[in-house]
Structure formats: C-alpha cells, structure tokens
Amino acid sequence: MPRYRLLPSPAQQVVLRGHCAHARFVWNLAVEQHRHWRPGRKSAPGYLEQCRQLTAARAEHPWLAGGPQMVQQQALRDFARATANYLGGTHHRPSWRKAGRNEGFRVVALKPRDVRRLSRHVGAVRVPKAGWVRFRWSRAVPPDVKSCRVTLDRAGRWHVAFAAVPAPVPAPGNGQVVGIDRGVAVSAALSTGELLRVPGLGGAERTRMLRLQRKLARARRGSARRGRVRQAIARLQARQRDRRTDWAEKASTGLARRFDVIRVENLDITGMTRSVAGSAAEPGRNVRQKSGLNRAILAQGWGLLARRLRDKAPGRVEKVKPHFTSQRCSACGHVDPKSRESQARFACTACNFAGNADVNAARNIAAGHAVTARGGDGAARPVNREPQLLLQSGQ
Ligand SMILES: [Zn+2]
C-alpha cells in the first residue's frame, strides 16, 4: 500500500484530528464490548450488531453525530478485521487506542475523481468534511484507488496510504473447479496436487529476526537502542511483506485464469478453531518461537491469497463447510481420524489410497458444496456447464 506525506492546512488538521478521535472512540467501544469474550465462547457482538449500536451512540452523543458516519463505520470494520486476524492466530488481540498514538481513520468508496494531481510534486485527495487535502506526490498513485487510510504519527506527521482493488481476471470458461486447502506445512495445497509456498524470510534472515526480537525484549523502554532495534525489525518485516504480496498477486492471478470455480474452506470457522487449538497446545509465549514465526508467515500468506482471489475472481470463489475435510478419504469417502497418519501424510484406513494430507483435504474441498447461508459468493457463477472437478488420480 503506497504511502504519501499528507499536507493538511491548519483548518483541515482540526477536521482530521476530529475524525481520528471519532474512529478511536468507536474502536475503543468495540474493544470494551469484546473485552470479556474468549475464543470458543459465543455471542460477542458482530459487525452488523455494532453498526446498530453505533447508530444509537450517534443519537446519544451530538459530538459523534457531527462526524461522518463512514469514518466511524470503517473503524468498526477495521476492528472486525483485527479480530479475525487475532482469531486466525496471526496478530495480537485488538486493544485500546490511545490519543496521540495509533491515530488514523479510513475513507472508503473513493472515486477516480476524488484523487487528482495538482502539479508535478503535489496531489490532492478528497476527505469528508475536510475537502481537498494536499499530499506529496512522491510516486505514482495506483489507477483504481478504492480507499485510503489517513494516519497521524507520534511526531505529528500526517500520511495517506491508498488501497487499490485489483481488476477482475476473466474466467477461462473451461468449467473446471479447483479446491484449495490452507496447508499445515505449505501455504496452500491444490486439488491438482500442486503445493503453494509463500516466500518468507531466508534462513539467515530468520535467525537475525529472532535475535532482534530477543534484543527488543531486553532493551529498555524509550531508549535509543530500542528505537534502532525496532527499525531493523520493521525493515526485515517490510522485505518479507513485499515478497509475500508479490507471491499472492502472481498466485491469485494464475488461479483465477486457470479455473472457473475456486473452492476454499469457510475461513471464519477454521480460523477460530485452529487458533484455539494452537493456544492450548502452546501455553508459553516464547516457547517454540521459531515455529510460531513460520506459522504466522504461512497464515498471513494464506489470508492475503484468499483476499486477492476474492478480488480477482468475484462470484467465482465458493466457501465450503470445513466438516471432516482433513479426515475424509478423497478416493472412497471414508471418514476416520486415524487416516490422518501425520500432519503431512494421509493414508486411508478403508481403501489403499495414500498421499499428501493437505492435497487430500483440497480434493474434498473441491468436491464440497458451497455454504449458502452466508450468501453472495456462489450466486453469480459464470459457467453454464456443470463444473468438472479437477482431481489428480495418481497422487
Ligand atoms: Zn479411502
């Protein structure tokens, strides 16, 4: 997400600070509501419920009603995303936002006419209630910008980051279906037998990262040394993020081009159960740091791939119920937990089928039926032939 230095006038700064305060207020309301909730326990309010509560809160507080509802709703959406990341095991639990730190808000539904170039080095973006806010045009702005995030750092500098939604990739029209499983050892396994690996840090980089993290834990809060270590970590993370993004773009374009229908497990469910299992099996925080790092990289790569697939193959990605996908034999349909010989290997106890456990799961997902309760995804299928499952027989 390219980031630019934002240059608001003093009057605009007052408006932007107001938006930040509203976003923070709403975010903290959501944190408050979720505070007593633990994974596995039901009934923390969802995004829609929170939106209803936001409407009520706006009726109660004129201060809140004075700000744009869109900014406040997006804060809830950000919170929902942060909660999903937490449940997926890739991020910390969303916590309180403090004034003067983590300040920012999101503007969505940007149209091409809302971003313009004023001169060689200056652009402007339209922000609700603030009007055209100038920014430093330090590099090209992506053509199809859909949203932006405005942030204020601790040093008082404003930035804007633009997010573009990639254009849909046309369906090949070959009627083929592929199943994708979020792998244990690899990022994703396809029902074709292909294994996708998200590039992470190299061996030396990983060792360096662990050393830096230990240094950070020892460094005194607020010290100059701590600042330097943080920066070094941020640089390594940025390198890793760039590789991951590049990989997700290429992999998602390839899949959207090759298959008419792409089936994945319903992530909302699996993310939750897997993170619960993970936290129970791993009580200590610094235990097995290395495997934790690997897992986080895999999970982030998977999440990014899934998002890009939804962008590039709209209406062609189907969510499938995750029931027994890892225990069911994709050859004969027999369900037996003992068939899962190990994390990596599946060997059916009923027939003699054996193979990669993630690929076996991907084949079950390819054969699965879309979850219809959540609506949306399966409705606009562009193929008029009955889709054929693309399975590999010799696995
Ligand atoms: Zn079998």
Key phrases:
395 residues, alpha+beta, 7-stranded antiparallel beta sheet, 15 strands, globular, disordered C terminus, binds zinc ion
Instruction: Determine the N-to-C terminus distance.
Output: 39 Å
Order of helices and strands: EHHHHEEEEEEEEEHHEHHEEEHE
Strand content: 15-25%
Work out the helicity level. Answer: 40-55%
Structural class: alpha+beta
What is the molecular shape?
globular
Per DSSP E runs of 2 or more residues, the count of β-strands stands at 15
Ligand list: zinc ion
Helical segment count: 9
Low-confidence stretches: 269-290, 372-387, 391-395
Account of the protein in words:
The chain is an alpha+beta fold. It contains nine helices and 15 strands. The strands form three sheets. The protein has a seven-stranded antiparallel β-sheet with strand order 2-6-7-1-5-4-3. Strands 8, 9, 10, 11, 12 and 15 form a six-stranded mixed β-sheet that branches. The longest helix is centred in the middle third of the chain and has 35 residues. It is globular and about 75 Å long. The C terminus is likely disordered. Zinc ion binds next to loops. The site of zinc ion has 8 residues, from loops.
SSE layout and pairing:
Blueprint: E1 3-7, H1 10-34, H2 47-60, H3 62-65, H4 69-87, E2 103-107, E3 115-117, E4 122-127, E5 131-136, E6 145-152, E7 158-164, E8 176-182, E9 188-190, E10 195-196, H5 203-218, H6 224-258, E11 261-265, H7 267-281, H8 289-312, E12 317-320, E13 345-347, E14 354-356, H9 357-367, E15 388-389
Parallel strand pairs: 8-11, 8-15, 11-12
Antiparallel strand pairs: 1-5, 1-7, 2-6, 3-4, 4-5, 6-7, 8-9, 9-10, 13-14
Helix pairs in contact: 1-4, 2-4, 5-6, 6-8
Zinc ion binds next to loops.
